[in-house]
Write a structure and sequence with these properties.
Layout lengths: L13 E4 L10 H9 L6 E5 L8 H11 L4 E4 L11 H9 L2 E4 L4 H8 L3 H11 L3 E5 L1 H4 L4 E6 L10 E5 L7 E4 L8 H10 L4 E5 L3 E5 L4 E6 L3 E5 L5 E2 L12 E2 L2 E5 L4 E3 L4 E3 L9
Parallel strand pairs: 1-5, 2-3, 2-4, 4-5, 8-9
Antiparallel strand pairs: 1-10, 6-7, 9-12, 10-11, 11-16, 12-15, 13-14, 16-17
Length: 279
């Protein structure tokens, strides 16, 4: 469950990224994360546990240092015992930002779920530390995580499997590589199971910067698809067999790009800076 924000404090930003974020040229997503974390004073912990590639942590260390962060350290977790080490917990508590890389989100849940490190990250976020994740790392940030599922634009019973995530918030469910991998159907299926949450589908090189006021701001070159099932009028999920299409009536869908916003509390979208009235 999300940690309680102390009275008089603000939680840190939560920043899911759709994967394949620009790392060479226009690094606006990663640059904004560094700026939020303090710019030249930023102290960032990179957690590459989702990835099986040995150089993933080192790569992000180089990127964040190049973007001006004062201190960056990659900390990997190979066993659940690692996630109970006091020195690693203390390192998380000192950081101004935590960044989860891509890979396999089930690896994150298996190694970190229910551990002291997971609790420390939730508590740090509640006290103001900013937490970002890309691809699998993005899926892991919320309480309800899409573990895996099938591609396609139609919701299909049994086409998605949910698992517990880190639990920074229970307000949304994330799906990544959204347009590139045709994942509208599986996100809609996940919401049919849990209409309380808001579905956020992130294109590649696109991030949702979610502030302490629960306003979603878009950064990057693609779009953020918001699927809102709060006013869903009908679902056939309880009537169909696995593998059959699901009828969902009353879903609301918004496509946000940089400059537009969505309020997770009021569930209202805004064109924001894009709403220019022509004379």
């Amino acid at each position: 469950m999300p940690s309680q924000v102390p009275q008089g404090s603000q939680r840190g930003w939560i920043i899911p990224i759709g994967g394949a974020e620009e790392k060479e040229n226009d690094r606006s997503i990663l640059a904004r994360f560094v700026e939020l974390c303090g710019g030249e004073d930023a102290d960032i912990v990179v957690i590459p546990t989702a990835s099986k590639l040995a150089d993933t942590g080192l790569r992000y260390e180089e990127i964040f240092r190049d973007l001006g962060a004062a201190r960056v350290e990659a900390i990997d977790f190979d066993t659940r015992r690692d996630a109970e080490e006091r020195s690693r917990i203390a390192r998380i508590e000192r950081a101004s930002g935590v960044f989860f890389t891509g890979g396999n989100q089930l690896r994150l849940g298996t190694l970190l779920g229910g551990t002291s490190i997971a609790r420390a990250i939730r508590q740090s976020n509640a006290h103001g530390t900013h937490v970002a994740g890309t691809s699998a790392g993005a899926s892991f940030l919320s309480e309800h995580m899409i573990a895996f599922g099938e591609e396609g634009s139609t919701p299909v019973a049994g086409s998605v499997r949910l698992a517990p995530g880190l639990g920074l918030t229970n307000r949304f469910i994330i799906d990544q590589h959204f347009r590139q991998r045709d994942r509208l159907g599986r996100l809609a299926t996940a919401l049919a199971y849990n209409p309380f949450a808001v579905g956020i589908g992130l294109d590649e090189d696109t991030a949702a910067f979610i502030g302490p006021d629960n306003i979603v701001e878009v950064e990057g070159s693609g779009g953020v698809t918001v699927v809102d099932a709060a006013e869903m009028e009908f679902s056939s999920m309880d009537q169909v067999d696995e593998g059959e299409p699901v009828c969902l009536l009353g879903l609301r869908l918004h496509v946000l790009v940089k400059g537009s916003t969505f309020n997770l509390q009021t569930r209202k979208a805004s064109a924001g800076k894009l709403a220019v009235v022509k004379a």
